[in-house]
Every structure is written in structure tokens, then in C-alpha cells.
Amino acid sequence: MDFVEQVKSSVDIVSVIGERVRLKRMGSTGRYVGLCPFHTEKTPSFSVNATHQYFKCFGCGAGGDVLKFVMEIDGLSFYEALKQLAEQHGIPIPKRSEYTDPETRLRAAVFQMHELAEQAFRAQLAGPSGAAARAYLGRRGVAPEVVEQFGLGYAEPSGQFLVRLFEKRGFTAEQLEACGLIRKRDDGGYYDFFRNRLIFPIHNESGKPIAFAGRALAEGDEPKYLNSPDTPIYTKRQVLYNLHRAKDAIRKNGRSVLVEGYMDVIGVFAAGVKEVVASCGTALSDRQVRLLKRHSGNIVVNFDPDPAGANAAERSIDVLLAEGMHVRIAELEDGRDPDEYCNEHGAAAYRARLDGAKSYFYWLADRAREKYDMRSAEGRVSAFQFLLPAVQRLGDKIERVAVVNDVAGYLGVESGLVLESFRKAAASRKEKTAWVARENLRADEKILLNLLLVNAEARRQLTPELRHLPALEQFETRRVFQAIFALEDAGETVSFGAVDARLEENDRELLALVALSGETNEEVLSLESGQRCLDSLRALHRKAEAAALKARLKQAERTGDLQEALRLTAELDAMR
Ligand SMILES: [Zn+2]
């Protein structure tokens, strides 16, 4: 057996997904449902099918086999997911090279380059060229053991340091150009991406360095912070700085703390508030929020008090609420940023600030009060409208109404007006789904298709006739049927996955809808019910043919073509 098949047949998709998603069994049909881990929802549209070993979300359209699930949820390549599943289930992995594709080999090289770079940067910070960087850290109050813990480093200014290191280690030109740490000059030569910068390594959830951020040390060096570009092992929008160190504390304390910068994370963490993370030089993304949400649904946002920080906080609130997080905003007195505050006032004071953080809408209301003229009724209404989208994002209806009233009171807006605009906004708000189920499939079409997928005897008995059944041409799922026929012709095993693999996107959705939505009661999937479907389709076809003949007969009579009329009459009689 092929190794991929071997892995897939030795793991159960229900137990693999069940470790990540709370699944509920639906009857005795091998079907399970739960809340989709790939989009935010309140009612389950995520379905896992034990018979077909397949998952499908009817809300966002995500779907696939067990490998696809592991790839999506852990952000792995196909071969990495295969390897992970095999290892977890004690399945011996055949000789490596056979199961490493070029992409996986490249990723492995880029991982290795990052480990080498991290070591080299650390050595440079400790060495003579790192004096200025060490002095900067000293001024910011970062203790040597914290430097060590966070793996901080220094990139020297020559621009040839990593180039030489990587070339000496025998990395190829393709690897150099893919790693994100080296740039290519117009004349074909290479130079280091980070030069004369204090280096912050960025790690994935298993603690491996996958990118770096570099802070400028020389006056006038722009930008102040430089970040690794996206590479085969790093996607900025999907990584949170410090998550691998913070996640245990996030679970234990039931909240995460989101700050803006690397120095803030380090300062806050070193002070003992370990549930702290930052987005890596980007606006907070939905993917990043979902990473946090796996550990806790509560978050305290503590951005810099300057206008840029406040705007970033406002945008982050939007993303956080859209993902269903409970959001509070911490503010620090005297316009301190989190790092400075911890340095000056200590961890206990900072923790008290976090614990006392106000719910996001009071913070937004304060923002609105600053933005609009609260003395005029017009200004108050504008302020309220500024707040409305954020309030609308609240998933819970009762909480929403309570918050609306609360905010209206806080802003001094009439409650009648509040309810009016609230109702309007609610009416215009529609559930957004990437994928909408199509509902013009016939019941017999669904029964036959399900039957052919799971019942070999039914396939043997029904397909010879089904192949030539004219009614099949009218089915929206005809290409799915044809894929089953093609598999049989090729002497291959008919399975959900095999059929799925032969289809284009639209037809795959139809297959999922028919086989996984649980609409067709699996108790009716007997050979007999298949025969009945076939009978009724046959009868339907005869009726259609007869109707067509009658129409032609009428036409012949009208035009006085007696010979044709007689011939058609005889044909009609023969059909009865
Ligand atoms: Zn979904």
C-alpha cells in the first residue's frame, strides 16, 4: 500500500479532529458536527464523516481528508502533515528522501539557516562589535538573562556576514534567495538583509526561529524596525511574537495581553506577566486572533498611548470582535508604554492595570468623545454611529442590547434613536458565508449518489443502467456520477476521496453537500431504495419522451402531414 494511504487508513479522522474540535455524534450514521475551527460561528456547520473519512464546513467551505485538516490547522505542508500523523500514530516512515518533496527540503534548509543566523547574531551581540547594541539594551533596562532568554542578537554592518556563513555551509543560490535573510544585488552579488541592527528572533509555536526583526541602532537609519519578509517558513500574518513562551500562561490566566512592540513584550514578560504577545510588524490579522483564541477567548489590549497606538488599537478591536473575542483595553497613566511602565512601577502595579482594564466599548466611547463635539446633538449621534459597528460585532444578542443602552447613556444619546439605528444596522447585517449550498438537487439523485459511494453491490447492480439513463444527463451532479463510472472503468476503488480527487471545485462542493451534509437519511440507503429511484427515473423519462412525441404529433396534425402523424401515433402506442 502507498504510504499516504497507509497513514490515512491507520488514523481515524474523527479522533484526530476530535482532539481540536468538540464534536457531537449525530445518530448512528458516522456523522459528527461541531463548531468550525476555520471560521467564527455560533451554530455548528462543521461536519466530520467517519464513513468517508472526510470533513466539510458548510459555513466557510473548508473541507478535505485528515491530511488536509492537519495541514490547515497547523499550517503544515502536505509532507509535514503526513510525517506528523505518522509519528503520532507510530507508523514507521519509509526512507526520508522518498517522502520529502523539493518544497519540504527547501523549508528544512531555511529552518536550518535561521538557527545558524540566530546563533551567529547572539555571538555578535556578546562580541566586540555588539558594544553599542549592548549599551542600548542596558539603557532600556534589559537584564543579561533576559537577553539570553529572548535570544537577542546583533547584526554587524558589513552586509557580508551571513552571506559568507551560508556559503561556507554550502547552501545553494536558491536557498539563499528564499531564506529572507539575504538580498541579491543587481550585479548578482549577495548582501545581508539585516545590517547594524539589534536583532529579535521570532519563533513559531514549537520555539524554532523562523524570522527576525531588527531595530536600527544608527541615528537616521530607516525604518526603525525592519522585519523579515514572508518566506517558505514564515507568513507574517500568521505568527505572533512570543506566543510559544506565552501560551501556557494564557491558558492558566485565562487571557492574553496584546502589546505593540518587541521591547514591550520583553519588558512585560520579564516583569512576570507572561501571557503577553505582539503582532510582528503588521496590523493584527484574523489568523493571529484565532491562534490566541485557541488558548483563551479573553484579551487585554495595551497599546502605546500615542495617536498611532490608539488607531492601531481601534483596528485591532475590530478584528478581535469579528473573531468573537472578549476585549478589554488597558490604559497607563502619564502616557507610558507597557515596557516603561513595568520598569518604573513594577509587575504588581502593571498587573493591577490589566485586571482593572475597561471593556473595549468604554474606551471606544472615550475615543468618540474626543473625536466629536459632544455638546451638539449632531456630534453625539456621530459619536454613537462611530461606536455602532463595534457593538454590532458582539455575538450575543442580549449582551449587545445591554451594551447599546450602556453606551447611549454614557454618551448622552436618546435611547429611541439608539434603538432605531440599532435595528437598521441589524437588518442590513447579513451572515457572510464564502460558500452557499445549492438546493436544487433531486431526492433520488442524492440517494443514488450516496448509495454508489458506500455500497459496492449497489454499484454492481445499478451502474450498468444508470450509465445510459437519459435522466442522469439532467442531474446537476452528473459529473460526480461520471467520476464514479470512470473509477470503475479504471478498476480503481470507489471511495469518497477518490471521487473527490477527480472533480473540479463546483462538483466537489456538490459531492460534499450530497455525501456529508447528512440530509439523506442513511437508513434509506439500501439496494431496494436504489432500485426504486431507478424505476421512478425510468418512468419519468418515458413520460418526458411521450410528451415530446405528443407535441410532435400535434404539430404534424396541424400541418396536415398525415403520414408523419400515423407514424408518431404508432410510436406512442408502442410506448404504452
Ligand atoms: Zn468553517
How much beta, percentage-wise?
A: 5-15%
Q: Biggest sheet, in brief?
A: 6 strands, mixed
Q: What would you call the structural class?
A: alpha+beta
* Lateral arrangement of strands in the main beta sheet: 12-14-13-15-16-17
Number of strands: 17
Low-confidence stretches: 429-438
- Distinct small-molecule ligands in the complex: zinc ion
Number of helices: 25
Helix fraction, binned, reads 40-55%
Radius of gyration: 32 Å
> Can you give the mean pLDDT?
87
> What is the first-to-last residue Cα distance?
53 Å
Shape by Cα distribution: globular
Short synopsis of the structure:
The chain has 576 residues and is α+β, with helices and mostly antiparallel strands. Helices cover 53% and strands 11% of the residues. A hairpin with a 5-residue loop joins strand 7 and strand 8 (190-192).
Question: Could you explain the architecture of this structure?
Answer:
With 576 residues, the protein is of the alpha+beta class. Helices cover 53% and strands 11% of the residues. The chain is built from 25 helices and 17 strands. It has a 6-stranded mixed sheet, sandwiched between helices. Helix 15 (360-371) runs antiparallel to helix 16 and helix 16 packs antiparallel against helix 17 (397-411). The radius of gyration is 32 Å and the shape is globular. The two termini are 53 Å apart. The model is unreliable at 429-438 (pLDDT under 50). The structure holds zinc ion. Zinc ion binds at residues 36, 38-39, 46, 57, 59-60, 62.
